[in-house]
Design a protein that fits this description.
Chain A: It is found in: Mitochondrion inner membrane. The complex is a heterodimer of chains A (about 120) and B (about 425). Chain A has about 120 residues and is mainly alpha-helical. Chain A is built from five helices and no strands. Chain A has a domain of about 70 residues: Orthogonal Bundle (Cytochrome Bc1 Complex, Chain F). Classes of the chains: A mainly alpha (about 120), B alpha+beta (about 425).
Chain lengths: ~120, ~425
Amino acid sequence: MLEPIARAVQNNGVFRAICRPLANTWVNLSGYRRLGLRYDDLLREETPIIQEAIARLNRDETDGRVYRHKRAFQLSLSHQELPSSQWTKPQDDYKYLQPLIEEVRLEQEERDAFNSMTTTVRK
Amino acid sequence: MFHAKPLGKLAAPLSARAYASVSGSAPVISTANSIKVAALSGATDSPLASVSLVINAGSRYETGENAGAAHFLKAFGFRNTQTRTSFRTIREAELNGATLTAEATRENITFTVQCFKEAVPYFVEVLGDIAVATKFTEHEFKDVARLVAFESLGARSDSSARVLDGVHQAAFRGGLGNSLYALESSPITSGDAVRRYAETAVAPGRLAVVATGVDAQELANLVSSSRLASLTSSASTLSSPSATFTGGVQQIYESAAPISHYALAFASGSASAKPLAALLGAQSRVKWSTTGVAPLSKLAATEGFGISPFSFSYSDAGLVGLVVSAPRSQIKGAVEKIAGAIQRDIASAGAEAVQRAAAAARVDMAESLATQQGQIRALTGLALGQKSGVTLESVDDAAAKLSAEAAKVFKSKPVAVSVGLSQDTPYVDTLGF
C-alpha cells in the first residue's frame, strides 16, 4: 500500500531536485563512511531474503564485506575513525548487495504467487 | 499475473505438405540466420507434440581446458534465464503437463520438451531463452555441480557405462574419446566457465530445433520469432579432431566388482554399425528362449556368461562390438571363446544369419522410429548432417552389404576394455585378431 506511494515520491523530479544536494551531506553526516563501510554493509542481515542474497555474493565481495565489518567493529570499539584518506569514497559506495536482495525478493514473490494461484477452466 | 501467455493456434490445420514419418527426404528448413529446423507433423489425431533444442556441442568438442563442459552445459538446461526463473519454467511446464529433459551425447546436447500441441509456441520461446539468455549464475552452479558430480559418480560405479566410456577412449583417444561425464578433476569450477563454453557452442550453424507433432514451416516461423532469431551467424570456434580409430587396450582395475566385464569393439562404417551389432546377435526375439540360434548367444547361454552387443553411429565413425560379463574366474575363458566364435562364425556368417541380422536391424530401426524419442533422434541427425544410420533407408543400404562388411570389420583388430580384476583378463593381441 505504502510502497507505490513511496516509489512515486522517489521518482518525482521536483522531489529529487530538492533532495539531491542534501543527499551527500546527509550521507557524510551519518558517518559510516568514516569507518570505511559501504551503505549496503549496514542493511539488516537477519532476514531470510538478505541471508540468501549474501550467500549469492561472489568471493571478492564477501571477503571485502567481512573485512570492512571487522575493521569497523575494531574502530568502533577503540572509539576511533579512519584517517580521512581511507574513508569510503563516494564511487566505492555502490550498491553491491541491493540488486541481489531485489532478485531474491522477486523470486520469493513469484514463488508465493504460484503457490497461491487459482486456475480457471478455459471455456 | 502468472497466467500462461495466450498460446497460438498451432493445432490448426497446417501447410499442405506434411510429413508423417522420417525418411531421407524429410524437410530440413534453414531459418534466416541458418538455424536448422526439422519436424514431423505425425498423426493428426494425436494431441501430443515434442520440441527439442539441439546444440551440436557434445563432449567430443571439449578440450583439456574445458573437459566436462558439455556435461555442465547439459545440467544448466532450464535454469534461470534473463526472462524467467527456472522455478517459473518448471511450474509452467507442470501446469501445461509437459516433461522437460536434457540429454548429452558425444556429439549433441539436447533439451527436449514433450507437451501438448497448443503449448508448442510457448516452449519454443522457452528453448530459445535457454540457448541465448541462460544466466549461468554462481549460486546455481553449486546446485548444478552437485548434480553433475552425482551423475558422474553414478556412471563410474556402473561397470557397463564405464566399459563403454573406456571403449571410446581406447578407440578414438581425443575428440570422440572424451568422457561423457565431467570428472572430479574437471577444470570447470564456475558458472562463468560454463558460459564461455556455451558462448562458443551456441552459434546458429551448430543449432537445430526439431519437433514432432508440428509442421516444419510452422516451427520455422516460431523459431524466427523467438530469441534464437537474434543470434548472428558468427562461426563457432568449437572443433573436434575427426575420428580415427587408433586401437588400444584399457584395463580398469576394480577389485570390488564380483563380475568382470570385457568389451571388444571394432571400427565400422557409421551406417553399418547397427546391422553388424544385430549380426553379433543378442536378445532372442522368441520369448523364454534362452539360446536362440545366434551362435554367440548360444555359446553364452550354454557356458553361463553374459554378452551384450552395442553399436554407436557418429557423423564420421562407427563402433560395433560386445561386452562379455562373467565371474572373474571365468572371464578369460569366456572372452577367448567369444573371440574365436567371432572369427569363425560371425566374420564369415552364412546367408541365413545375415538375413536374420538384417531383419532384426530393420525391425529395431522401425520400432525406434515409431517412438517420439526415436523420431527426435532421427530428425536431429537429418538436421545436423549426422545422417548415417538414422533412417530406415540407410539401414537397408547397410544391410545389403552386410556380409562383405562383416568379413572386413570382424577380422580387423579390435580395441579391448576390461573392468574388474585385470590379472584374469586376456590381452587383445592374444585373441588372434
